[in-house]
Amino acid sequence: MTAAASEPPAARRPYDSPVRRQRASETRERILDVISNPNIAYILMMIGIYGLIFEFMNPGALVPGTIGAICLLAGLYALALLPVNYAGLGLIVLGLGLMVAEAFTPSFGILGVGGVAAFALGAAILVDTEAPDFQISWAVIGAVAAWLQGSPSVTLDLDVMPRRDLDNAERLASALNALSAQPRGSDKPTELEGADFLGWRSQSFDTDAGPIDVVPHALDLLTGGRPH
Q1: What gap in Å lies between CA 52 and CA 44, rounded to an integer?
Q2: Residue 127 · residue 38 · CB < 8 Å
Q3: Same domain, residue pair 75 and 88
Q4: What's 2-59 look like in SS3?
Q5: Do 170 and 120 have their domain in common?
Q6: Does 111 lie in the same domain as 64?
């Protein structure tokens, strides 16, 4: 029998000692305790979703997508350890979708407000238990909702909200004509007039300076176009 074979197992494999196994187990339990906190799981999931959204909006950036995928998987793993209410999860997804749509669709803030409301309600009922330790803090819900609704996003267009009077509308038409504006999706040359902008509908144009959306002024919507 060789000397190496006669050594006790602990001497040959110090990395596999009971103390090291116990420490590794304790470290793993600490990590799981942290990410299974409903507030941490919720924040991880939000970072993950928005990281992937930013990656899709900027293909090839890699950093948002990588961080987002890691955070989303960690958040979903944590949610699997919690009693999740799927109606709450659905409301969160709906709220995120509405807030993303707000960045691309002129809606006078309606989609954004609806998204924040659905998002906050979903977060409030996400964890289906009455135990206080498993509830998501309202401070965390409010902070994340405010950050998501207020976070900048690149929409690559310009939104114009002109006051609803003829002189102002004619100046807008003249400026758009100088930029060779055409209704989005139309190939026919168009000569715009001030009267085209006295209605209540939103209009989208492709111009030499890039996409421009013309939407009714918020005050005009509230007052019905009366002087204010």
Answers
A1: 12
A2: yes
A3: no
A4: CHHHHCCHHHHCHHHCHHHHHHHHHHHHHHHHHHCCHHHHHHHHHHHHHHHHHHHHCC
A5: no
A6: no
**Angle made by CA atoms 157, 160, 162, in degrees to the nearest 5:** 170
Residue 119 lies in domain = 83-155
Which of the listed residues 138, 155, 172 is the one where a domain comes to its end?
Answer: 155
Give the burial string for 165-177 (b: 16+ CB within 10 Å, else e): eeeebbebbeebe
The more confident residue out of 172 and 202 is 172
2 is a domain residue: no
CB 140 within 8 A of CB 44: no
Same domain, 95 and 78: no
Task: State which of 18, 51, 82 marks the end of a domain.
Answer: 82
Cα–Cα distance, 110 to 7 (Å, whole number): 74
Beta-carbon contacts of 166 under 8 Å, excluding residues fewer than 6 positions away, are: 194, 195, 198
Q: Which of 167, 163, 159, 162 is nearest to 228 (CA)?
A: 163
> Do strands 158-160 and 210-214 pair parallel, antiparallel, or not at all (unpaired)?
parallel
- Strands 158-160 and 203-207, how do they pair? unpaired
Contact predicate 87/94, CB 8 Å: no
- In sequence order, what are the beta bridge partners of 127? 84
Q: How many domains does the chain have?
A: 3
> Residues in the chain, how many?
228
Question: What's residue 222's pLDDT?
Answer: 44
How many angstroms separate the first and last alpha carbons of the chain? 101
Q: What is the pLDDT of residues 51-104, one digit of tens each?
A: 887 887 777 778 888 998 998 888 888 888 788 888 888 888 898 888 777 766
